[in-house]
Amino acid sequence: MTNREMLSPPPAGAVPKSGRRRFLKSLGSGVLALGSLGALVGAARRGPGIENGSAPHEGVHAAVPGKRLRRWAMVIDLRQCDGCQSVDKPPQCTQACIEGHFAPEPMQWIEVYEGELPGGGVQFIPTPCQQCQNPPCVNVCPVAATFSTPEGVVLIDQDRCIGCRICMEACPYDRRFFNWGQPPQPPEALFVEYDPEHQTPARKGTVMKCNFCPHLARAGRLPYCARACPNNAIYYGDLEEDLATNGREVVRLSRFLAEHSSYRLKEHLGTEPRVFYIPGHGEGVGHDSYRGGRKATQWPWQKRAEGAATWSR
Amino acid sequence: MNTASRGGPVVRTTLAGLVALALAAPGPVLAEPAREPTAMSIGTPPAAEMGQRITLQALLVDSYGDPIPKAAILFTSPSSFLNVKGDAVLARTATNKDGLAVATVEMRSQGTVTIRAEFPGSERYEPSRASGQMAVGETAQPLYTQQAGVRIPGLNSPPPIGPVMLLGETPPYGLPREMAAIWPNISGWPIPAALLVVWSLYGFVVTLIFRMAAAGNDGGTAGETVDTQDPSAGSEEGEARRQPPTP
Amino acid sequence: MVALSRAGFTRAAGNVPPSWRERLEGRALRPLATGGPAYFSWLAFLLAVMGWAIYAYSTQVDQGLIVTGMRDRISWGLYIAGFVFFIGISHAGTLLSAILRATKARWQMSITRMAEFITVVALMVGALFPLIDLGRPDRLLHVFLYGRWQSPLLWDVFAITTYLTGSMLYLYLPLVPDFALCRDRLGPTAQRWQRWFFRAASLGWTGTVRQRQALERAMTVMMVVIIPVAVSVHTVVSWIFAMTLRDPVNSTVFGAFFVAGAIFSGIAAIIILMAVLRRLLHLEEYITETQFVNLGYLLGAFTLIMGYMNLSEYVTTGYKMEEGTRFHFQQLMVGPFAGLFWFYIIGGLVIPGLIILRPRTRTIKGIVTAAVLVLVAMWIERYLIVVTGFRVPLMPYQPADYLPTWVEWSVLGGAFALFAFLISVFGKLFPVISVWEVVEHRGPEPSRSKAPAEEAPHRMTGTMSEGGIP
Question: Is this complex's ipTM strictly greater than 0.95?
Answer without folding.
Answer: no
